[in-house]
Specification:
Elements: H1 7-21, E1 26-27, H2 28-35, H3 39-52, E2 58-60, E3 66-69, H4 78-86, H5 89-100, H6 105-112, H7 116-131, E4 135-137, E5 144-146, H8 148-164, H9 172-186, H10 198-213, H11 236-246, H12 252-264, H13 272-285, H14 292-306, H15 319-328, H16 332-349, H17 354-367, H18 371-378, E6 382-389, H19 395-406, E7 410-414, H20 437-440, E8 443-447, H21 455-472
Parallel strand pairs: 6-7, 6-8
Antiparallel strand pairs: 1-3, 2-3, 4-5
Helix pairs in contact: 1-3, 2-3, 5-7, 8-10, 9-10, 10-12, 13-14, 13-16, 15-17, 16-17
């Protein structure tokens, strides 16, 4: 993981990841301990996030001290990470040197409006971080140097994560050419299963183009069993656009076949038989009934990418862990089974990279047709009785709204109108009844006027109830 020069940036990122990515329930005291700071600092950090980031407001419950947000089911953390990347000075300096180097210190200071002493402090910190990746920044004319394959891996991962969580549209002209090329390549039936991975492909090509345009040689990561000549998939006019953008003559066949090998390489491992056996077990477990040819095709594709770029450890934003945690809220039983199955495979193969396990789970979900429908059959829903506080005319509207929003978590039944509670019978007139109340049934007590603002707490309640149901079974 990247170590930030600014301690405040680290705190911001940790809270954003805990609340919005990992969906981690934390109390004020627990967060203070994890951040190694006092409670007053936690309060001020949360206040800063609420003021400066485009995120649902973060709250601290005055009674339980539990930290929660106004997050709704349609929230995705694009804006927070766009702000985080683009407002973090060290990333700004790093990108400028990567794209424009070699440059002088004066060039960087003038273009980024910083002093020479500030730049030197950031450069010193950047070099400490980059040393962990076997690369550094040259001292005289500032540019990126080191192991060329490590440089490629690092910046591909950097841009991939940055664009995974934002609607990032820099380098538009280059991206259009790469997208056109990718469509032509994946029209070939040998490469059709690579279609979900355009975001990786485009940054592998882009980073390689940047390095080649500066006179560096991009090393081949492996040899293809069937050479893929990308000159067949790129138009001359498009190649002229790339040359114009990078300001020099690129050798078409040399660079493009090398880039293709970086992306479409096959790994020389002995895992194929075990992986195919695991995927057959996955097929049986979720009753997918895939044909033998489909099973073989998908397991071969998974084998082809298992040890490639799709399994790199994350740099800042672990996209696949975020996707896994999001899906866990909908399919806890199914994903626990999937996790156990793949963890056993990794143990037998001797793969110890924890992050790669989540990458591979998401890879399988992306490749497997009908998997979410099969997951749905394995999930239990908690039965919830819905009571309303006054405003009884809205009863059926609220029932329909909750069913639409949370059908994956619960089935709702509206209590008989004779048992509707009045406002004075409900403690504080707000939300969720104690489960032990009224014959220990699962209950929701809701005031109609608060239905939208209480959605996050309702969701938390339903998740907790379903987890209790799963524990009992």
């Amino acid at each position: 993981m990247w170590k930030f020069k600014n301690k405040q940036s680290e705190r911001h990122l940790f809270i954003l990841q805990s609340i919005f990515l990992n969906q981690q329930p934390l109390t004020l005291k627990e967060l203070s301990h994890l951040l190694e700071c006092d409670i007053k600092t936690v309060h001020s950090t949360i206040r800063d996030i609420n003021n400066f980031y485009s995120v649902p407001t973060i709250h601290i419950d005055p009674k339980t001290q539990l930290i929660f947000s106004d997050e709704t089911s349609d929230f995705f953390p694009r804006d927070i990470f766009l702000s985080f990347y683009e407002n973090t000075r060290e990333f700004e300096i790093l990108e400028y040197i990567f794209l424009n180097g070699p440059v002088t210190s004066n060039d960087v200071c003038e273009n980024l409006f910083i002093s020479d002493s500030t730049l030197n402090r950031y450069l010193s910190h950047l070099r400490k971080n980059l040393n962990n990746y076997d690369i550094t920044i040259e001292h005289n004319n500032l540019h990126i140097i080191g192991n060329e394959l490590c440089i490629q891996n690092f910046f591909v991962q950097y841009y991939y994560e940055k664009t995974s969580c934002t609607m990032f549209d820099d380098f538009e002209a280059v991206q259009k050419v790469i997208f056109s090329m990718f469509k032509r390549v994946t029209a070939d039936e040998r490469y059709i299963l690579f279609r979900p991975y355009f975001n990786y492909f485009r940054w592998i090509i882009f980073v390689a183009l940047v390095r080649v345009s500066k006179g560096n040689l991009v090393p081949l990561a492996g040899e293809l069993s069937e050479p893929l000549i990308l000159e067949d998939f790129i138009l001359d006019t498009e190649f002229m656009q790339l040359n114009h953008y990078f300001g020099r003559k690129l050798q078409k066949i040399d660079c493009l076949t090398d880039f293709a090998a970086l992306f479409f390489k096959e790994t020389n491992t002995t895992y194929q038989a075990q992986l195919h056996e695991m995927y057959q077990a996955f097929d049986r477990l979720f009753e997918l009934d895939l044909s033998e040819s489909s099973l073989l095709s998908i397991s071969n594709a998974l084998y082809g990418v298992l040890m490639s770029y799709f399994g790199k450890s994350y740099f800042l934003f672990n996209t696949n862990l975020y996707r896994f945690n999001t899906l866990m809220r909908h399919f806890p039983t199914s994903l626990e089974l999937t996790h156990s199955l793949i963890a056993s495979l990794f143990e037998s193969l001797g793969i110890k990279d924890h992050d790669r396990l989540y990458d591979f789970i998401i890879l399988i979900l992306d490749y497997t047709p009908g998997i979410y429908e099969s997951f749905q059959k394995h999930e239990k829903r908690v039965a919830v009785t819905l009571f309303l506080v006054t405003n009884t005319t809205h009863a059926h509207f609220i029932l329909r709204l909750l069913t639409e929003r949370f059908s994956n978590l619960a089935t709702f039944t509206l209590a008989d109108s004779n048992t509707l509670l009045t406002e004075h019978e409900v403690d504080e007139s707000i939300v969720i009844a104690d489960v032990a109340t009224l014959k220990s049934e699962n209950l929701l007590i809701i005031e109609a006027g608060l239905i939208y603002s209480e959605m996050p707490r309702i969701k938390h309640f339903l998740v907790e109830q379903r987890n209790q149901e799963l524990l009992r079974t």
